[in-house]
Automatic annotation (TrEMBL):
The lineage of its organism: Bacteria, Bacillati, Actinomycetota, Actinomycetes, Micrococcales. It comes from Nesterenkonia massiliensis. Keywords: Amino-acid biosynthesis, Arginine biosynthesis, Cytoplasm, NADP, Oxidoreductase. Residues 4-136 form the Semialdehyde dehydrogenase NAD-binding domain. This is N-acetyl-gamma-glutamyl-phosphate reductase. Belongs to the NAGSA dehydrogenase family. Type 1 subfamily. NCBIfam families: argC. It holds the Pfam family Semialdhyde_dhC_1. GO terms for molecular function: N-acetyl-gamma-glutamyl-phosphate reductase activity. Its EC number is 1.2.1.38. SUPFAM superfamilies: Glyceraldehyde-3-phosphate dehydrogenase-like, C-terminal domain, NAD(P)-binding Rossmann-fold domains.
Amino acid sequence: MTYSVAVSGASGYAGGEILRLLANHPQAEIRTVTAHSSAGQRLGEIQPHLHPLADKVLADTTAENLAGHDVVFLALPHGASAEIAAQLGDDTIVIDAAADHRLESGTDWEKFYGSAHQGTWPYGLPELPGQRSKLAGATRIAVPGCYPTTILLGLAPGFHSKLVEPTDVVIVAATGTSGAGKALKPHLLGSEVMGGMSPYGVGGSHRHTPEIEQGLSWVATEDVQVSFTPTLAPMSRGILATSTARLKPGITEAQLRETYTAQYQNEPFVHLLPEGQWPATKQVIGSNHVTVQLAVDEHAGRVVVVSASDNLTKGTAGGAVQSMNLALGLPETTGLNLLGVAP
Ligand SMILES: NC(=O)C1=CN([C@@H]2O[C@H](COP(=O)(O)OP(=O)(O)OC[C@H]3O[C@@H](n4cnc5c(N)ncnc54)[C@H](OP(=O)(O)O)[C@@H]3O)[C@@H](O)[C@H]2O)C=CC1
Ligand SMILES: CC(=O)N[C@@H](CCC(=O)OP(=O)(O)O)C(=O)O
């Protein structure tokens, strides 16, 4: 059986990556691609790497053009995404890459996004304890942000097993520039980014802070507070997150390793690496995989977890396709059997 699919935002980075994955999905029929300022152009003019789809013409992103599909992917700026989602029928599965429906707290939404909260959808991170069952058969799914995906999968087992303290969590992560989308932004000019690294969203102001706290609070079943600092690295794709949390008294590295192994040993896309091997972005670029490693810093009384992902694949499009598979009742890995492209 095949399912008709529409991808909105098909001229953007996230939409392009969704199409790259769907082009290899045996049960997805890409029927419609839509865009905004690029509507009317051939997809091949904008996304030349998607050559089997080159002759598809980008339609306007309207509810009419997206109606009548089994699945609609939204890869639009937040706000525009919620607006179009509200016009789509309940008979269509809507998978949203934007942030609009990720947060439960309207207060957090308004504080970090400065607009009215549009509601909450099931959270498309099946590996986070408690989430997979909510995605089976869902008709609306909010795909997590790229940092939250990487950081939550790095930290969740320790919080789920209550081996770490819920406060005093410190996270520093580096991302590639594609995380910001393809619109022109002065701080993302090659001359600004190449050959160096810089922080942004410092001091707890990044929009992913409440999303990370939400996911960790769900699995810890108590409020978790984090300090999160993102940095920009001179690469197009990839996230490398270093997260540290204070250990509860007496907790050992062996206990943590046992918990992580139990949580991830049957996950197709999340891998606790063999002891002594550390995540690196090149292991996961182009794939739906996340690599994780941990060490206990006994001097500081903390666990240090490093996790790596491709922000556009597991961090957006791969997570979106994985969510679609669950919503449709297909094997979760369908169309996602890709390995990283190192070196
Ligand atoms: N890049 C990433 O790593 C991640 C992105 N996301 C989210 O995915 C979504 C898309 O991001 P990304 O692909 O990076 O962004 P891009 O800027 O690369 O693409 C944006 C897309 O949205 C279209 N668009 C722009 N404005 C409007 C509008 N007002 N109405 C309808 N369509 C519009 C653009 O069309 P056109 O080009 O024709 O104008 C383009 O297709 C965002 O919500 C982003 O936050 C989530 C996780 C990670
Ligand atoms: C480099 C860069 O700017 N990255 C983006 C990641 C955005 C993302 O993951 O998307 P959402 O906005 O949908 O949450 C950022 O830090 O905002």
